[in-house]
């Protein structure tokens, strides 16, 4: 744990759980902000999109890890730390001793992201925004930054959580799909 702690910044203890931010999230954030600043002319008056996207990614990864944490505790496992990395959490958790319970613990994070994706997707659908299905493309979402500021924030929330669901369900380590498999 000391090796990982040296690569993280403490965000304090939240409800008895140590929450830490991995240095790679900070580096990813700086690089994202640089790209957003560099393409400022392309985005015109939407320079707020990069920091908003980073904030939404942070919250999405945090909620994902909280889902793992709650599932671990309820199913007989243990966790005392949440580490937020860029796109994935790196929390060292002691899984439950039963294989089915361990599988559920690993799938709890993607289920949280799927719930956020579903809720934000429903908001987009109800708003009448065109081409909701264009957001389902994980590599090149369509019309992501079109619309009012609130609609763009909801679209970003939807797309970020959709990508997290897809990535985390890959049946490969260190993703949750690989651990569940």
Description:
This protein starts with a helix and ends with a helix. The strands form two sheets. Strands 1-2-4 form a three-stranded mixed sheet. A two-stranded antiparallel ribbon has the order 3-5. It contains seven helices and five strands; from the N terminus they run αββαααβββααα. The chain has helices at 2-5, 23-38, 40-43, 49-74, 99-127, 149-168, 176-180, and strands at residues 8-14, 17-22, 78-79, 81-84, 93-94.
TL;DR of this structure?
This protein has helices at 2-5, 23-38, 40-43, 49-74, 99-127, 149-168, 176-180; strands at 8-14, 17-22, 78-79, 81-84, 93-94. Strand 1 and strand 2 (17-22) form a beta hairpin.
Shape: globular
Structural class by secondary-structure content: mainly alpha
Output the strand order for the largest sheet.
Answer: 1-2-4
Element pattern in H and E: HEEHHHEEEHHH
The biggest beta sheet is recorded as: 3 strands, mixed
Radius of gyration based on Cα positions? 17 Å
Supply the number of helical segments. 7
Task: Report the end-to-end length measured between terminal Cα atoms.
Answer: 25 Å
> Helical amount among residues, as a percent range?
55-70%
Report the uncertain regions.
none
């Amino acid at each position: 744990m000391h090796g990982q702690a040296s690569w993280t910044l403490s965000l304090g203890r939240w409800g008895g759980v140590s929450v830490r931010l991995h240095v790679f999230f900070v580096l990813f954030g700086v690089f994202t902000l640089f790209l957003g600043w560099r393409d400022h002319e392309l985005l015109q008056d939407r320079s707020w999109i990069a920091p908003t996207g980073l904030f939404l990614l942070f919250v999405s990864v945090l909620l994902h890890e909280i889902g793992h944490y709650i599932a671990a505790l309820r199913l007989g496992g243990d966790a005392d730390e949440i580490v937020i990395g860029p796109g994935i959490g790196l929390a060292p958790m002691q899984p439950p001793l039963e294989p089915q319970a361990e599988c559920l613990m690993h799938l709890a994070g993607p289920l949280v992201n799927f719930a956020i994706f579903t809720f934000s997707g429903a908001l987009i659908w109800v708003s009448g925004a065109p081409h909701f299905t264009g957001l389902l493309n994980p590599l090149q979402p369509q019309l992501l930054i079109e619309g009012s500021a609130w609609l763009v924030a909801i679209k970003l929330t939807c797309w970020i959580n959709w990508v997290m669901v897809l990535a985390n369900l890959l049946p490969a380590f260190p993703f949750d799909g690989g651990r569940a498999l």
